[in-house]
Amino acid sequence: MRMKFHEQLDELTDRLARMCHLAGEAIAVATDALVHADLPLAERVFDLNDQIEELRVPSEEQALALLALQAPVARDLRQVITGVYLVADLSRMGELAQHVAKSVRRRHPGHVASGEAEQLLAQMGRVAADSAGVAERVLRTRDPEQAGELDRRDDELDALNRQLLDLIQDPGWTGTIPAAVDVTLLARFYERFGDHTVEVGRRVIFLVTGEQLSS
């Protein structure tokens, strides 16, 4: 019975890691669509998010079934509870990538941003995608040291977000008000994506150590 239980836990972990992989791919594709004003790429993000959502429902159901039917304790209980919360984090990451794609679709055939603003957003997209890759490895390895790397990458995203805000508030910036709104929202989407990867790391640390880190 316990062997079957741990097999199911492994299946849940694999689903979560696949969701994280898809979220990373989605934010990378959304960023390419943003930089190139590429509508087909933007549409692909919606397909990737659909795949994430297809994994979300069975993951939630499996985690809740394990809680209800197996009555896990100690670390096993932490793993199941962590899985429940991770499903929400990973689903939200897919939604944030989709928000970037929606911006591309809304402004097509034009670019959502241009010049230095677009360059900074592209950089945020690369950092966000890299963070998702680290988060996937953390989920598979349960390595607290790698989980700590996610905080550093999140700091990088925060710094880029501040640069963007400084840019559009500079009196010399020549962009329009709608462009400023678009840039602000996009930067927020990337920043929040990074925040969720950090949560993945913190939840894995809780799983391994039992220590609940503060945000």
What secondary-structure arrangement, pairings included, does this model have?
Layout: H1 2-36, H2 39-70, H3 74-107, H4 115-141, H5 144-169, H6 177-209
Helix pairs in contact: 1-2, 1-3, 1-4, 2-3, 3-6, 4-5, 4-6, 5-6
Describe this structure in words.
The structure is a single chain. The chain is mostly helical. It has six helices and no strands. The chain has helices spanning 2-36, 39-70, 74-107, 115-141, 144-169, 177-209. The mean pLDDT is 90.
* Main β-sheet description: none
SSE series: HHHHHH
Distance between the termini: 37 Å
What's the count of strands?
Answer: 0
The assigned structural class equals mainly alpha
Which regions have little confidence, pLDDT < 50, spanning 5+ residues?
Answer: none
Give the C-alpha Rg. Answer: 19 Å
| Number of continuous helical runs | 6
Shape: elongated
The proportion of residues in beta strands is: under 5%
The portion of residues assigned to helices is over 70%
Report mean pLDDT, rounded to a whole number: 90
